[in-house]
């Protein structure tokens, strides 16, 4: 799965529009993931997962910041995400299936908040982008 | 308790009542073909699928999307027996159409995105969770008779 020039442009434009809301959206996407796919909560048994949780908020911001970095370095995701890739491979070891679940909930969150931006073409580019990020994050698993 | 709790049924039916099934069907099928282009393999006879705009404007895509979602909508009326409701369609998709059930899961998730797109904040996490159960149930029911 290769990101075309159009994909990169779509992702940068869309992420640019999101601006300072990225943290909120990261948090919402996590909340949606836990709500819709309860098995994902197994990785956060040590968190308060109730609505409005400060831990989930902080984690949502972390996820959003990482995605912002990925967008900024969209031409070289493996390098930009190398440390996170190590983290997920050797420490967190989140089963790869879960990246699809969070990616889907990120798409849903963006569709809710930015209907004008969420055209079919942008939807496709974002899906590819999240897929590319997920691939990098699981690339050192074995 | 059936497949959905009473509360989840309420959330699903509450939102579905406001859905323009014909339009959402075309939108969902169109986005499936745009976002997951390999799904176009089932629609070689549909004419111009060369760009996102071509796909979304294609009258055969719209017509077929309408058909698919009306069928989904009928299935919702039998939410506690989806396997029964979709038995014949399951056989059709296996024996005649030869569709990999993974495609039902993809379409289900695209439908969720379309609902989010249309309803915005109203499509909150609880509503989404109920719909995720529904689309998973329908996908599973459609795959049930495969052999």
TrEMBL record, chain A:
It holds the Pfam family Globin. PROSITE patterns: GLOBIN. Gene3D superfamilies: Globins. Keywords: Heme, Iron, Metal-binding, Oxygen transport, Phosphoprotein, Transport. The keyword Mitochondrion does not apply. GO terms for molecular function: haptoglobin binding; heme binding; iron ion binding; organic acid binding; oxygen binding; oxygen carrier activity; peroxidase activity. GO terms for biological process: hydrogen peroxide catabolic process. GO terms for cellular component: blood microparticle; haptoglobin-hemoglobin complex; hemoglobin complex. Residues 2-142 form the Globin domain. It comes from the Eukaryota. InterPro entries: Globin, Globin-like_sf, Globin/Proto, Hemoglobin_a-typ, Hemoglobin_oxygen_transport, Hemoglobin_pi. Heterotetramer of two alpha chains and two beta chains. Hemopressin acts as an antagonist peptide of the cannabinoid receptor CNR1. Hemopressin-binding efficiently blocks cannabinoid receptor CNR1 and subsequent signaling. Involved in oxygen transport from the lung to the various peripheral tissues. Belongs to the globin family. This is Hemoglobin subunit alpha. It comes from Lynx canadensis.
UniProtKB/TrEMBL annotation, chain B:
InterPro entries: Globin, Globin-like_sf, Globin/Proto, Hemoglobin_b, Hemoglobin_oxygen_transport. SUPFAM superfamilies: Globin-like. One of its GO terms (biological process) is hydrogen peroxide catabolic process. Keywords: Heme, Iron, Metal-binding, Oxygen transport, Phosphoprotein, Transport. It holds the Pfam family Globin. The keyword Transcription does not apply. Residues 3-147 form the Globin domain. The keyword Heme applies. It comes from the Eukaryota. GO terms for molecular function: haptoglobin binding; heme binding; hemoglobin alpha binding; metal ion binding; organic acid binding; oxygen binding; oxygen carrier activity; peroxidase activity. GO terms for cellular component: blood microparticle; haptoglobin-hemoglobin complex; hemoglobin complex. Heterotetramer of two alpha chains and two beta chains. Belongs to the globin family. This is Hemoglobin subunit beta.
